[in-house]
Amino acid sequence: MTREGVMEAATVMLGENNANRMVLLRHDLPDGSSHFDWLIQRSRGGPDAPGATPDLDARCLLSIRVSGEFPFRPGQTAAAEQIADHRGLYLDYEGPVSGDRGRVERVARGIGAIMAENADLVVIDGRFAAVEGGVGLADSLARWELDKADGTLRATGRAGPCRE
To answer: How far apart are CA 44 and CA 116, in angstroms?
Structure first.
């Protein structure tokens, strides 16, 4: 499915006011280890409004580091932590990371919405589509919850009403 097709389908499922771009990057480090960086565009007015192209230098992407396999299917979990917001350029960037910090490769992209974000919990509804050579993904709207207290990212199933 093309980027435009992913965005159109997910926008219909999430609603015009909630559809933001998201990407899953595999970050290979110089020491041979790796993790995933899950980046979700934040909703803001102006150029960062839902679906808009973000300022490439602005730190406007909610960022979650995921260890091990990413939990695509309901019931799956992974160790994860919220990290500093990333710059908008990472929605489309693949290649070396500055400062000899390894390289990133896009595994999946899609559309998502940050449904809740507080000191204890981040809730994201979204839909991924695999990129060429990427992992196999479910083609339905899903929900993930990051429990900051225990550092666990859970795929909880289809998106629904948000618990805060």
So the answer is: 15
The reported pTM is 0.78
The 10 Å Cβ neighbour count of residue 138 is 13
Give, in order, the Cα–Cα distances in Å from 55 to each of 92, 137, 159. 12, 29, 28
pLDDT digits (tens, 9 = 90+) for 132-160: 555 545 556 789 999 999 999 999 876 65
Q: How many C-alpha atoms does 35 have within 13 Å on its Cβ side? A: 15
Domain ranges of the chain: 3-157
